[in-house]
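Give me structure tokens for this 450-residue protein.
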Amino acid sequence: MAKFRITATKPITNENIVYWYDNMTSMVFNEDGSTIEFKGEEKDYTPFPVKTSKETPAGKSKEVKVLKIQLGLSCNYECSYCNQRFVPKADETTKDHVQPFLDKLPSWITPSEEFRVEFWGGEPLVYIKTLRPLAEGIKTLYPNAILNMVTNGSLLTKEINDWIDEIGFGIGLSHDGPGYHVRGLDPLDDPEQLANIMDLWEKLGPKGRMSFNCMIHKDNKSRVDVQEWFKNKLGFEPPIGEGGFIDPYDEGGVASCMKDPEEHIKFRLESFGDIRSGKANSFDIIHKKTEGFIKSILNKRPAEVLGQKCGMDDPSKIAVDLKGNVLTCQNQSAISTSFNGEKHLIGHLDNFDKIKLNTSTHWSHREDCPKCPVLQLCQGSCMFLEGGMWDLACNNSYSDNIPFFMAGWEMLTGTIPFYIDGDFREDRKDIIGSINGIPKAKRVISIQPI
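Here you go.
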């Protein structure tokens, strides 16, 4: 049983209080070991179906909740930390592949009651001639399907916007705010592109069908700064999707990671301050992570129900190309290879029973994850990273998630954790740096009860 001794401070009074926390059962205890009972819901949890690994690969279910369609990896931008930059490109599909794909789709899968279809690139609008008939065909087959797409917005036109609105797409517009320089030329600096993006916002924003999706990295650390940047640039504060710290997949991603321990501590402290101030409340991740952690404790969520953070080890979520190839995820191709040496082509829709997710590793097979206090928030970082890349991603994810842990803990107990002891990495125990047992937060942000 993994337990952590948590030392937390009471705002205003500076009183330190000790708790115990079990990440496997989501239970909290007083210093004397007595259980703290929180009022939650009675939940009948089901263990996650398959803890996938190279040796114990997961399959896929024909009853599909999320269908991710990979149109191709071509993009008109070259983001320095893009997880597709060095993925080898398979022979790309075209609009000629659309109808054969649509003809076979009903025999391949059975959509769940809430069926979501995502269209992915590269940049999906590079493939507009394929995207149009494909999305229209999907909507004909499955009128209630939820359609979604992430785009950099640089290829939008008024005519494409009208089509996106009419067919019912939800749109995530990739933009890092003040950290956009790592992506390339900013479409918001081009008057024509800005006009087209704003036209789409006017069509979709009031309907709750558009967000601006931002990634956090070492040169773009402050969510408050990002939110303020959007407000100044656009004249309003849009909902901000994504919002987590990047995972590295190549040297470009590595360059955007924090490496110095003090840099990690500073980020955790600033991130907690951003969350606590309420000035970054346009970020959906803040609400989801904090509330999700609180609910895990209220409802005593066991770790055995947790899949990976991306969800692509879930048998009901599947990524495919228009040839029916099944992929690890939408960011890979049929000819790319995972860090564990297996092909990211994990099967074909014609042979559903032979689909095997052997490219990925569930958190329960990692050395550090079961012993980590933020397991319930992190859920194992990227499921197919290994070696040094996974180590960096793990470091990023811990520093990204511990401020959400702190915020949720304060909302539950009225105290702010600053030191965690237990059987896990020594460099992570002093969360935000402490001096004589007093957290540095006392000297940096105004500590008031949330």
